[in-house]
Write a structure and sequence with these properties.
alpha+beta; 2 domains; 3 helices; about 40% helix
């Protein structure tokens, strides 16, 4: 989730996929120069790394039934290609 709770101190915050979304929104606001710019990002365990699927957390959870390494790779590919 992204919140602008106070226009004098705008910020983006979120956890897990919401943290990833908050980071992406903050970058987009920067790129298109929307004012006021966020002054703070609170990202609680965001999913921001999609390059190395051999990191310990990916290896440890490789065969988890709900969110495994193969599904994470597929989701990242969809995200990177702009698919819904």
């Amino acid at each position: 989730m992204v919140f602008y709770a106070n226009t004098t101190f705008p910020h983006c915050t979120g956890d897990s996929a919401g943290g990833t979304f908050a980071a992406a929104v903050a970058l987009k606001l920067r790129d298109i120069n929307i004012q006021p710019q966020p002054k703070l990002q609170v990202l609680i365990y965001p999913i921001t790394q999609m390059v190395d699927f051999m990191l310990p957390s990916y290896v440890r959870n490789e065969w988890e039934p709900l969110l495994n390494k193969r599904l994470m790779a597929a989701l990242w590919l969809n995200y990177a290609q702009g698919r819904k």
